[in-house]
Design brief:
The protein has 8 helices and 11 strands. The protein is of the alpha/beta class. The protein has 2 domains: 151 residues, Rossmann fold, CATH 3.40.50.170; 67 residues, no CATH class. β3, α3 and β4 form a beta-alpha-beta unit. α4 runs antiparallel to α8. The radius of gyration is 21 Å and the shape is elongated. It starts with 13 loop residues before the first strand and ends with a strand.
């Protein structure tokens, strides 16, 4: 990792979990089982680290679990024992919104990755992976739940090393996939031509209909922006029906 690195402390004294509180409740006991005097703190966003003392980070390790938040390089460099991600997606799905693209692609195998975090997203050395089979017809929630369970198992397998091993974790020779999924590609799937095939429309709604936190589908090809509606429109709303699926105009 380029740039200044803090001196490596003799032991890991703190772990910062960048994840949802619900995940943290399951992860923290796995870490404390191996080192009961660890300081373990859950955060929702990397900006929260700006308020932490340097000593806490220099003797600590950052672990991102199922988070889409990007951690800047200057923050990564402050952790004495490295920064790692348990990523909800396999190595051949690097980039943005792996779960959404997997649902769209109707994959029959998916997985999770434990890797070192670097400045460039999904480029760091891969520590370990796990894969699982699926039907290719899972909803986004179903695939997310399956992936979360597999990610928890991967975390448990490496909780001892994450909690106690000083310095960088040993990496495998596994490489990331060559196709990088991007926010632009996500957005492009949310532009809906008015003559779209019914099956294709269903696939896009299933994979991208909930948005990605930044893009809120959908934009119809005549530049009208619509949101997929499960409920009937009111008399004051504009609307569009494609293949019996209802869209409401964004105001």
């Amino acid at each position: 990792m380029a740039g200044h690195q803090p001196p490596v402390a003799q032991q890991v004294t703190s772990i910062i979990l960048l994840t949802e509180p619900g995940h943290a409740e399951r992860l923290i006991p796995l870490l404390l089982a191996h080192k009961n005097d660890l300081i373990v703190i859950q955060i929702n966003h990397p900006n929260e680290l700006l308020d932490f003392p340097e000593s806490l980070l220099s003797s600590g390790r950052l672990i991102s679990f199922g988070s889409r938040q990007y951690v800047p390089e200057d923050i990564l460099q402050q952790f004495g024992h490295g920064c790692y991600e348990v990523r909800f997606g396999p190595a051949d799905y690097p980039g943005w919104a792996a779960l959404n693209f997997a649902v769209y692609n109707q994959v029959k195998q998916f997985g999770v990755v434990l890797h070192e975090m670097l400045k460039v997203i999904d480029s760091g050395p891969i520590i370990a992976t796990r894969h699982f089979s699926c039907t290719g017809h899972e909803t986004l929630k179903e695939l997310t739940d399956l992936t979360a369970n597999e990610a928890l198992a991967l975390f448990a397998d490496h909780a001892l090393a994450l909690a106690t091993q000083t310095g960088r974790l040993a990496a495998t020779a596994q490489a990331w996939g060559q196709h990088l999924y991007t926010k632009w590609q996500f957005t492009s799937f949310c532009v809906i031509p008015s003559d779209i095939d019914k099956q294709e429309l269903h696939r896009r709604i299933g994979a991208f209909g909930e948005g990605d936190g930044q893009t809120r589908p959908f934009m119809i090809s005549d530049n009208r922006v619509f949101i997929y509606q499960a409920k009937p429109l009111t008399e004051h709303q504009d609307g569009l029906v494609l293949h019996d699926l209802l869209f409401a105009a964004r105001k």
